[in-house]
Design goal:
By secondary structure, the chain is of the alpha/beta class. It contains ten helices and eight strands. It is globular and about 60 Å long.
């Protein structure tokens, strides 16, 4: 059972120790940024195409699409390379001879980046307002945290160079004094769990002093593993595979203490967590 804070859509699923938080780790895509909104519409067809072209499978397009959607959805929140590693397994189990996961990751970026670059160009020339490519009121939420002296960090499964650039374009980078972290080509050198553990160690924090905010199960799972407070953002993204239909349920299932749809009630959330 859960309840909503009075007069809000903020769902409280687990009572947490409030008033102690001094550090907050944010996910990026789907939590703050919508620049890569619809990435699933690029990744899924690409993977189906590679499975069909690199194996002798007789499975229908619809069957392969269903298989790909399941593992892409399941691995969302981890570095992109993990989805590509699963792709190589799918090719191999069908008798194909897969290339290295980085080959498929590069192919994916080559297809996605023109879409992202167009949005970035539209931001630069004023055709698009940054507001349209941010999760509602995310910037205002970050501003308030900054004003009350909270240390904020960004940790994303997207390549770090893209994350830094896109956070800057959205006006959010300046609020992450704790650092902006993202995926590396040497993927074993980065994970959200590693970022979280370093913060805990560096500052000698108890779980109730660290807040994790994200729309993926990975960061929520990481938060609960160390006793941190977890806020799940059940944001709506644009993808044709309905992969986010159960986002809220999945966030609850992995232990989110609080669920919000976006940051339009950010002041109320901050009042609850920090007062």
């Amino acid at each position: 059972m859960y309840y909503c804070l009075e007069g809000t859509n903020i769902e409280i699923h687990n009572e947490v120790q409030t008033g102690n938080i001094r550090h907050v780790v944010f996910d990026f895509d789907g939590t703050i940024s919508l620049i890569r909104d619809g990435w699933q519409n690029v990744m899924v067809p690409m993977m189906v195409e590679f499975i069909q072209s690199e194996t002798g499978t007789t499975e229908t397009h619809e069957t392969l699409e269903s298989i790909v959607v399941e593992f892409v959805d399941r691995l969302t929140g981890k570095q992109t390379i993990y989805q590509m590693m699963q792709l190589t397994e799918e090719i191999a189990k069908r008798g194909g001879n897969p290339k290295e996961p980085l080959f498929y990751k590069d192919a994916y970026n080559q297809r996605l980046l023109p879409i992202v670059d167009q949005r970035i160009a539209d931001l630069a020339n004023g055709t698009l307002s940054p507001d349209t490519l941010r999760v509602p009121m995310a910037l205002e939420f970050l501003q308030t945290l900054h004003e009350i002296g909270v240390h904020c960090y960004l940790a994303s499964g997207t390549d770090v160079e893209f994350v830094k650039n896109e956070a800057e374009l959205l006006g959010a980078a300046k609020f992450f004094g704790g650092g902006i972290h993202g995926a590396l080509r040497e993927y074993k050198k980065f994970s959200k769990a590693m970022v979280i553990q370093k913060i805990l160690t560096d500052f000698g924090l108890r779980g109730s002093e660290l807040l994790i905010i994200g729309d993926g199960y990975v960061e929520i799972e990481n938060a609960k593993a160390v006793g941190a407070i977890a806020v799940g953002v059940a944001s709506v993204e644009d993808n044709i595979y309905n992969m986010n239909a159960d986002k809220r349920e999945r966030l609850i299932r992995v232990g989110a203490d609080i669920i919000i749809p976006d940051f339009r009630e950010g002041k109320e959330l901050i009042s609850y967590l920090f007062d």
